[in-house]
Every structure is written in structure tokens, then in C-alpha cells.
Amino acid sequence: MGAGIAQCLADHGRDVTLTDIDADALARARQRIATSRTTLEAAGLQTSEASAEGDRRLATSTDLGQSVAEADLVIEAVPENIDLKCRIFSELDQLAPPRTALVSNTSGLSITRLGQATGRPEQVAGFHWWNPAELVPLVEVTSGESTAPELIERLIDLATQLGKQPIHVRRDVPGFVGNRLQFAVFREALHLVEQGVVSPEDLDRAMTG
User: Fold this and answer.
1) How far apart are CA 207 and CA 201, in angstroms?
2) Cα-flanking dihedrals φ and ψ of residue 181, to 5°?
3) Which of 153, 130, 154 is nearest to 140 (CA)?
4) How far apart are CA 64 and CA 200, in angstroms?
5) 184/165 Cα distance (integer angstroms)
6) pLDDT per residue over 93-109, tens digit each?
7) Bond prior to 132 in cis (omega within 30° of 0)
8) Cα-to-chain-centroid distance, residue 62
9) Rg (Cα) of the chain, in Å, rounded?
10) 132 phi and psi, to 5 degrees?
11) Alpha-carbon gap, residue 146 to 67, rounded angstroms
12) What amino acid positions are annotated as catalytic residues?
């Protein structure tokens, strides 16, 4: 997800440093972004000029401290493991300037807990993109228990400027909104099949027709 998020930000005029401990992963991300831009251009969704400008604005680094030293916003997109994310947020809290907002692309882990791993919980929020991040318009902006309202407003404004459709998840609940709606549909679909109301094949037709 990190590559798509970085691509979207850079292609909309933001200076971005995509950071990973693995240089090979960064090289693969660069290739993925190049392929995505070619696809967008072929579909008439992006100009070659915008792609070139985005490429100019996108840097990569394996040095987290250097990446965040002057950052206004850090978007974390590591795997969905709460202990790993808490370690990352604690490290970011030590490395980033006090003014820097720290936000997570988590799809449903506790924003409050991530904030508690830092000394700046008011500057921690959820900023969940959907895959592929450069295409899907929905972005969930989630408040933790201590998140400053000003940060939520800032993230909603940023997402809108990026051409996204942000929603504010006002309470820090597992799965946020989008995933909970999907899971509810999945549960009901399984229930209908288990109760003999519909065959799996006809259920598929109902969902895709």
C-alpha cells in the first residue's frame, strides 16, 4: 500500500520520501509505481507531464531518521501487526519533529493504542486508504481518544485535495466502517447459504449481477 499512497501524493504535487529498511523493496516499489503511471496514462486518467512531475517529487530512502527529519506528515503502512506498529510509532515519536503528525494506514487496529505508544497522541490518527491506493477514492480518517480535531480536519482536507472521498470515523472501533460493512455482508451471505435460502452459485449471481 505504501507505494500507491506515495504515488498519489507525489502525483498531486507533494514531496514524498518512500521509506523501507529493504532497498530491494524500494526498487520494486519504484517499478510498481512506474507501471501504474503507464496504466493511468493509457486510460487517459493522468498525463505524462503529471507522471514526470510526480517522479521528480518522489524520493526513496532506507534511513527512517533522515526521511522524517523535516516531515510535516508521516504515513505508516507496515503490515497489520499492532506490536510492530506500536514499535514504529514509538520510534517515529523519537525521530520526527514535535510538529509532525503521525498517521497510520491500518485497516482496523486501535488508533488510541498507537497514540499511546508516543508522547504526542493528539497528533496521531488513522488514515486508511483502500487498495489500489492510487485509484480507489475512499479514505477513512479515524480519531483516537486523544486525536486533535484540527488533525482530522487537516487530513480530510488533504484527502479531498488528492481527489479522494474521505469519511470521518469518529470512534476508534475495530475494523472502522468499510471493513465492518463488508464483514456484515459476508456474514449474512454465509447465513443465507447455510439456511438453504440460496445456493452459493445464485448468491454469487446476486452479488455480481
Assistant:
1) 10
2) -65, -45
3) 130
4) 48
5) 22
6) 999 999 999 999 999 99
7) yes
8) 20
9) 19
10) -75, 130
11) 26
12) 107, 128, 140, 179
